[in-house]
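WP5 quarterly update. Target: Dienelactone hydrolase family protein. Source organism: Pedococcus bigeumensis. Length: 241 aa.
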Amino acid sequence: MTTASDHTSHPVSVLDGEVPADLYQPESGSGPGVVLFQEIFGVTDYIRSRASDLAELGYVVLVPHLYWRIGDEVVSEAADGLPRAMELLGKLDWEAAVSDGAATLDALQDHAAVDGPVGMLGFCFGGGLAFNVAAVTGAAGAGPDALVSYYGSALPNLLALAPQVSAPSLHHFGLSDDYIPADTVREIEAAVTADNDDVTFVTYAGAGHAFDNPSPLFHHQGASQEAWATTTAWLGEKLPV
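Structure tokens (predicted):
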């Protein structure tokens, strides 16, 4: 058993290999599960810190390394790292990543340490991927029990999948997002709430994209704190420990 601050390797088998994944367990050793999806920068210290935060709350957390087919690179979250991060995202096979995400969800649902429901949480690229995974797994009857998406960057192109996402969901968006304009945020809100009565959609005035990331390039302290408090309370309701 790990402590909330440690993790162990827990690769996930897929048809063409194994997805590297990090497993974080709460001090109790068991609890509800959360699959945590990375940003475009890879499985960074920030993503690991959020995994630890969730484990400290009592969740069993599995973090897949979604760049494994293209080198599993971790990129600086400073301005000079953005071009490389965008290059990696351009090389990513989206459908393969969705399949990897679905396999990771299935692996966590079957894990012996998981006692209770299993949700997904994703940031930026991972927020959109989590939404896509929720749609395809939900349509197959094996979807997550809850979905949290932070400023899902792919969501504007995934709205046709919204009717397939039946899980309760929580969405966070900044209204000063340079990548997802406020009018697009409202289009996303309309789409994800049209067929699902259990959607919480929260926006943050003055917050830009990736506002939860502690890098000075992105961080908005007020929005980050408010959104994390909302997330933990919401998870406590949907995935009670």
